[in-house]
Amino acid sequence: MRLNDDGYLPQEPIMVDRLKGYDRDNIPPKVIEKIRKEYMSNPDFTPASAAKASSACEGMCKWIHAMDKYEEVAKVYDNNK
Q1: What is the pLDDT confidence band of residue 15, given thresholds at 50, 70 and 90?
Q2: 8-state DSSP, 46
């Protein structure tokens, strides 16, 4: 595996940009369903557990938890308008 001059994997900055620009207001229902069924229902799917693998895994786990919570709150907010 080769790192670029900045010490990152070549795709890492692209991935970070994609996560930052993710359209969290329009998460497809199938995606949320899969996240909740395969990840959020797993008690071991925590940032602390993911951190044991790598800091990148920890960050991704936090992001997934945040997107799940955001979608949940946004749905309640939309229903109360």
Answers
A1: confident
A2: S
Q: What dihedral do alpha carbons 27, 28, 34, 37 form, nearest 10°?
A: 70
* Amino acid in position 12: E
Please give the model's pTM, rounded to 2 decimal places: 0.76
How many CA atoms within 13 Å lie on the side-chain side of 59? 8
Q: What is the DSSP letter of 24?
A: G
CB 3 within 8 A of CB 9: yes
- The confidence band for 81, taking pLDDT boundaries of 50, 70 and 90, is low
CB–CB of 47/65 below 8 Å? yes
